[in-house]
Design goal:
EC 2.5.1.18; Putative glutathione transferase transcription factor MYB family; 181 residues; glutathione transferase activity; transferase; single chain
Amino acid sequence: MAPRGDSWRHNEEVILCQAWITVGGDGCVGKDQKSDLLWSRVAEEYNAHKPAGCMDRTHSSCHARWKKISPACMKWRQALNKVEHFQRRSGENMEDELMNVKSTYYDSEGCDFVFEHCWQYLKNTEKFGKTPSIENTHFSVPNHVNLDDDGTPTTEDELPSSRKACPQGQKAHKLAKKKRQ
């Protein structure tokens, strides 16, 4: 067994999150990569951008740290959703809401959320981003039925408004990359 490496600093964890976002969002490779390959690429990206004076990290070291960051951030998102579901009370500001989220997280996990520095980068990703609630999803409901209609939507307005555009597929991404070269 290899000796234990240095503890992760906040700035290293931020670089790890950025590397995960970069490698995970690479349309050329897509989501079809094996775990070892993914974490080798994340470690390579991390080591290329690591802060000065910090040691290189192996793919297993990056993966092990990610297994601490990812679940904590998912639970933080759940706490955020729970607090947002109850709406802000009259007289509360964003700081009060943040305290409510911290309290909700602590109540469910028994410890404080220690990855706020990582959350700032992860909160806008597909995995950790805000999930639309049923109340926020708007569907067009007709008030009459046309028996001649074949059931296909005729305009964009009839599709759910919360639907996100799909990212470019692997083949399309590779083809576009070839055309640019």
